[in-house]
Amino acid sequence: MVVKTPNKAPFHRTPAFPVLMLQLVVTLGVALVLWLFQGLVAGYSGLLGGLVALIPNSYFAFRVFRYSGARSARAIVGEFYSGEAGKLILTAVLFITVWLAVEPLNVAAVFGSYLAVLATGASALLIVRGFPKH
Question: How far apart are the C-alpha atoms of 24 and 19, rounded to whole Å?
Fold first, then answer.
């Protein structure tokens, strides 16, 4: 029997939190720059692209960091797989929703912002390395 021990630290103290906050800053920054230099459509398209990356990443991080400790190893692995599957499904649903519900849309701004937020997540090791251990 696997004992699932909830993470005693609040979510904002997990190693994923600073990465997600940086992804939020990148999302807002890219959207602002696009809005200022290319107009309103590019701005909200960039915002939506960033959110398509950020929301599934947040879901994944929440799932994976719900448990901690050696006794929770199996639960953590299970959450990793189900969190990744949920992240992929959520990403697909969000992209489809954006394509079908938003018009006009700047496709380049959506993908550019999406990729910028993913690149921020890819550099997470550099961000988390400096994260204080409490």
Answer: 9
pTM for this model (two decimals): 0.82
Six token digits for residue 16? 């994923």
Hey, which residues does 6 pair with through a beta bridge?
67
| Residue 85 to residue 77: CA distance in whole angstroms | 13
Q: What is the pLDDT of residues 43-60, one digit of tens each?
A: 999 999 999 999 999 999
Asked whether 106 and 38 are in contact (CB, 8 A), the reply is yes
Taking alpha carbons only, the member of 131, 5, 9 closest to residue 70 is 5
| Sequence spans of domains, the chain | 14-122
**Cβ-based neighbour number of residue 2 at 10 Å:** 11
